[in-house]
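Aim 2, interim progress: modelling of the KET-bound target.
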Amino acid sequence: MFKHVDPYAGDPILSLNDAFQKDPRPGKINLSIGIYFEDDGRIPVLESVRRAETQIVAEGGPKPYQPIEGAANCRSAVQQLLFGAGHEAVASGRVATIQSVGSSGSLRVGADFIHRYFPASGVWVSDPTWDNHRAMFEGAGLTVHTYPYYDDATGGLRFDAMQETLRAIPKRSVVLLHACCHNPTGVDPTREQWNALIPLLRERELLPYLDLAYQGYGESIEADAWVPRAFAEAGLSFFIANSFSKSMSLYGERCGALSVVCPDAAQAALVLGQLKATVRRNYSSPPIFGGQIVARVLTDPALRALWEGEVKAMRERIVAMRKKLHAMLSVKLPGRNVDYFLTQHGMFSYTGLSQVQVERLREEFAVYILRSGRLCVAGLNSGNVEATAVAMAAVMAG
Ligand code: KET
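Predicted structure of the complex, ligand included:
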């Protein structure tokens, strides 16, 4: 019956994480998946989250099906988080928001919507991008292309080439952009560059699709939401998928959201209706607990303040690890420029290591980074950074 089924080649991120779990070597180091680990090597349960959970469990409410679009208090808290309290786009009702199964769920729901209502549109993603972007949009039946982004030679952004491509692609093409902490490169456009992209997107009638998976890991929770706010203020219509996996360390609760900023409230109502139709025919409604935690943490002033402090501490620990690894490698590899560890933003560093070097890291030193050379700085800690530097210096020198 099933002999014709293709074997699954595995996923470049999740399969590597599985391989790490199975690796019996005691000193193994996981710098592959985009998860924030504490200095003790464990995934934290944030204190703000733990308190919210305790409160919700103590209240002992039932667990009904949620509305298709998710909980009203969660959706409204998400809108405030993305656009700021009292933003015109939110106040005027022109943002359609659904709570979703992680931001992966929102990306896919948005992709299905685009396939249905913009069937002629292609999707343009940065070169490179998160591996799953292409799979998700192609899985929804859309054609995926790339625009120039990362410059191997300088470790910076190919901004002129990026603009040139975006100026030349057909109207109503979908342009996927990382709102902060670009995955995998850690290279973000400056505000000046975003301000140059806005009129280009508008004049070319392009449809931006923002992915905000690392809010709080760049500059701050507020500053990392600058792009959607600037887009909304400029009158662009766009999609934004945001995640609480990283910012609240809620990976397995699968809580994220999709917001579509529309020209007016009437169009937002139409869009919301079709997002609901898409959800109903896929998974019917989102899970309940993650959304309850998110709504509680975002709206309870004490929990909110606690959470903001915890996000700051995670961000600062990553920066401290960037500095440590940079300092160690600078000593071990004199003359080699590894400043990218200091200049890239967010969880990841794009190391430029070749596939052969990445394999050597894993096979000889039990250090796991992605085949692309992406290293998760949030997996470094005071106990493994030296061993990581030793391993990297060995493969980079040889
Ligand atoms: N967008 C980006 C850019 C992203 O890096 C991830 C996850 C997601 C969306 C999905 O997150 P969710 O938990 O569905 O809200 N990235 C890490 C994990 C993964 O690949 O699934 C990673 O890049 O390692």
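The chain has a mean pLDDT of 97. The chain has 15 helices and eleven strands.
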